[in-house]
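<derive_structure_tokens>
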Amino acid sequence: MKVLLYFESEKALQNSGIGRALKHQIAACESAGIEYTTDPWDDDYDILHINTVGLNSESIIKKTRNDGKPVIYHAHSTEEDFRNSFILSNQIAPIFKKRLMSLYTQADAIITPTPYSKSLLEGYGITLPIYAVSNGIQLSRYDADEEKIKAFKKYFSLKDTDKVVLSVGLYFERKGILDFIEIAKQCPQYKFIWFGYTNRVMIPKPVRDVVDDYPDNVIFPGYVKGPIIEGAYAGADCFFFPSYEETEGIVVLEALAARQQVLLRDIGVFDPWLIDGFNCYKASTNEEFIEKIVGIVEGTLPRTSEEGRRTAEERSISSVGQQLKAIYESVLNKH
């Protein structure tokens, strides 16, 4: 069995969650002993596992179908998580949904990261088999490493007395960036760092305004990878992720794997696998977020980091690899 892992516009999306998802799929296949290729010109494959929805994606589906091979679509995107992102995204969202439906329904089966995103797709009227499989997490990258923490603190010239609230994401309103800035204004005693970047030409004016003019206790370092961000996950005092909509949130898995104290918006995608007060904390309003940030940073709320790590371990790359192998074999046997 050989799988074609297809990912259109890889360079453009490499810094996004979808970009990391492809790397995780490669690692998952390797861990499960699944032969794979990422070369669409390599005709020697048995099943197409496609991750993107561009024009070239449609062509590779057609070619695979003409060759009599099965297709699995990885549904990373929904109409819901397309909204409140780029300029005009809300106006385009219904068209985008039709595009997703036309592509996803050409598959033999669909993989999506969570039971929540599975329920959204079922709500669209899709009747194909849909499997909820986490994007996975490379646990070893987030094991305790004092050198990475030192690198993070040195990079930002942080003092031992500095308290840091961390977030990671694109500059999307959907990600909660406006709330992040407002909360930072009300908590001047802490430093707030937002890792990630989106071209300002693509984002609406309210978001552009806050990434151009922000409080002194906020840092926007852009896209940073490697030891710096891995050290940030472990060395910060709180990972605050106020996103309004996700299909999973790979950065949440990364924070959990690093045994970070995680604070999330209480939204459907995190049910039932993340539980307030057990393996994370949740809130719904800025007032609640501030209360819990202070409780986490000052240590008045119980730590949830060990249970968080166990939650990440359940979504390890090796576990994902075994799940993918079972799905590939099932789809091939039924084809």
